[in-house]
Amino acid sequence: QAQLVESGGGSVQAGGSLRLSCAASGYTQSSYCMGWFRQAPGKEREGVAVIDGDGSTSYADSVKGRFTISQDNAKSTVNTVYLQMRDLQFEDAGMYYCALYFGRWPRQLWLGSIYNYWGEGTQVTVSS
User: Fold this and answer.
1) What is the per-residue pLDDT for 17?
2) Separation of first and last alpha carbons in the chain
């Protein structure tokens, strides 16, 4: 049973930066995708960035050039995935979740329902 624990959220002024972390454990599959999703109040959940076990990445158009997803999978028991967020805008605010998909790049990469495990989320607030 995989477990995902997010951290690093907080409040930041517009234009500022935050780095989110997701500690993932309890699985041994080497073929996976780890994604960051976010959901603002009253809005649908949306995919932000995804990284696979080989380090290939994909980003939503809204965050390209501002967000960077990376991972530290050197440890055999815990894989930590990071989301470095720069030049944060008001529309970036919301609850950020990491999610784990077992397998190669899925066709519906941004469809949250295909992901096998989810964390509880970490809140990001952007203020003026």
Assistant:
1) 98
2) 41
76 or 1, which is more confident: 1
Q: Confidence class of residue 74 from pLDDT cuts 50, 70 and 90?
A: confident
Euclidean distance between CA atoms 18 and 30, whole angstroms: 28
Distances (CA, A) of 92 to 1, 74, 122, 125: 31, 30, 13, 8
At 44, phi and psi to the nearest 5?
A: -75, 155
Residue 27 tokens read as 């699985």
86, 71, 53, 96 alpha-carbon torsion, rounded to 10°:
-50
Contact 79, 34 (CB under 8 A): yes
Residue 29: pLDDT above 90?
Answer: no
Mean pLDDT of 22-41: 93
- Long-range contacts of range 105-112, CB-CB < 8 Å, 24 or more positions apart? 105/33, 105/52, 105/56, 105/58, 106/33, 109/33, 109/35, 109/47, 109/50, 109/58, 110/46, 110/47, 110/60, 111/47, 112/37, 112/45, 112/47
